[in-house]
Amino acid sequence: MQKKIPQRQCMGCRERKEKRAMIRVVRCTDGEVRLDFSGKLNGRGAYVCPDKACLAKARKTKALERCLESTISEEVYDRLEKEMEAPIG
């Protein structure tokens, strides 16, 4: 029997994709918003595809802010953009 692959919805394009293929943004218990590459930080999480178009859409509609129930600084959005530009591997 095949193992189930966890799926998450992108806050930009609203498509469901594999959890490991997406970037997790977390509002930690101290209220700070961080990027979580391990997927294990405690707190409320939201996912976005590693695609600039998805990030731009999520930023415009404030989908991440609504999901995390917190305001997100420009610094976090900038860091997300830089991570998407970096080569994976």
What do you see in this structure?
By secondary structure, this protein is an alpha+beta fold. The protein has helices at residues 52-61, 63-68, 74-85; strands at 7-9, 16-18, 23-27, 33-36, 44-48. The chain has three helices and five strands; from the N terminus they run βββββααα. The longest helix is centred in the C-terminal third of the chain and has 12 residues, at 74-85. It starts with 6 loop residues before the first strand and ends with a helix.
Provide the descriptors you would attach to this structure in a database record.
alpha+beta, 3 helices, 5 strands, 3-stranded antiparallel β-sheet, 89 residues, globular
Task: Give the overall silhouette.
Answer: globular
Mean pLDDT across residues: 90
Strand order, main sheet: write it out: 4-3-5
How many DSSP E strands? 5
What class, by secondary structure content?
alpha+beta
How large, in whole angstroms, is the Cα Rg?
13 Å
What is the percentage of strand-forming residues? Answer: 15-25%
Low-confidence runs: none
Distance between the first and last residues' Cα:
30 Å
Concise summary:
This protein has three helices and five strands. It has 89 residues and is α+β, with helices and mostly antiparallel strands. It is globular and about 45 Å long.
